[in-house]
Amino acid sequence: MTIAISVNFKGRVEAAVTMASTSKMMGILGPSGAGKSSFLRAVAGVEDAASVSISWPNLSRRIGMVYQQAMLFPHLNVQGNLELATLRATKGAISISHAVVGCCCDHLLDKPVSTLSGGEAQRVAIARALVNGPDLLLLDESFSAIDIATRRKIYQFLKALCMNTGLKCIVVSHDIEDLALFCDELVYFAQGNTVKQGTTGDVLNDLFETTEVGDPTATLEGVIDVCSASTQNGTELREELEEAEKELGKAHEIQVVIVNVEGVNVYVTRDTLITSPLSLTQQSGRFSVKATDVSIDTCHEIDNTTSSILNALPCQIQAISPVMHGCSQLPSAKVLLTLAIQGNNKEASPQLLYASISSLSLSRLHLHVGMNVMARFKLL
């Protein structure tokens, strides 16, 4: 179902957002004071002065909201907060046990709210919203105090819920990497208006090209062989890692996965990889690469290197842009390269990668638009 939302909040927000029927999670980003939180508060119905219109086929819709401040009831422990939320839950709401495991807070049930850390309280607040059974969940910087490994697990749990139950999520966050990995669509707010909206890749590419967002992050997708341990590459990788572990005197589970990106194998650690099934034997893998982690090599051979950098993707330089110094908008000593990955599928639009390099390297390597280069980056 497509959701069309318009908000008129005089002096603060005048914005219209459309969430496609195929989208499960939408991200909202923009500078501080752009109206992102005001927009969510208006949609949640807590701003009486706002005029809100929501076009949504589900007439019995229920909207849940989780703020940056967890706002738990202090006179109840964690279990009590969750049980209170179930008293008026919808029939399709998930159980407390399901929610607390998914939100990584099952060990906190007996704890008084006053003893929770900021991150723990946010996890409980998300679980509490879920057990109430919302159709649309609004998350306003609700992961800000949660460590990266835990919040990625919760994001994956929410995405799975969206896929399996029809839940929709709208997330406000300043963390572009999280939004790039998990959101199907993005909206960019500025001065209370929606400036850009569309698929995550399209919006981020537009923002990076116009330098409205610093520290660009590319999101790459590829195919993982579920049975990779039995394939030649999987076997070779396992043997290499086992040999490395022997040299280090260690024995632990192998945490590296091969992702085939445009016909090239890339090595990614499991905890940085977002997976989804393609078939019984294959999964897709999604991961992010920061521009600051990418180096440029004019040698076109992937394996012709003595560097410790494992990953290499053949690319063509599409654009070279100066990097500005914050609010001063004066050129820095760096430039941003937009790189199109040269893959097997010549008909599809190429996946984009970004590299932040020095102006001196640009000059020394004689880099120019249209030049073929090798983009190298470390194991993620």
Can you walk through the features of this model?
The structure is a single chain. The chain is α+β, with helices and mostly antiparallel strands. 26% of the residues lie in helices and 34% in strands. A 6-stranded mixed β-sheet has the order 5-6-7-3-8-9, with helices on both faces. It has a 5-stranded antiparallel β-sheet with strand order 15-19-16-17-18. β6, α5 and β7 form a beta-alpha-beta unit. α2 packs parallel to α4. It is globular.
Question: What is the H/E string?
Answer: EEEHEEHHHEHEHEEHEHEEEEEEEEHE
Main pleated sheet: 6 strands, mixed
Note the gap between the termini: 36 Å
Q: Categorize the overall geometry.
A: globular
What class would the helix/strand composition place it in? alpha+beta
Low-confidence parts: none
Helix % is: 25-40%
Residue fraction in strands: 25-35%
In total, the number of strands is 19
Count of runs of 4 or more consecutive helical residues = 9
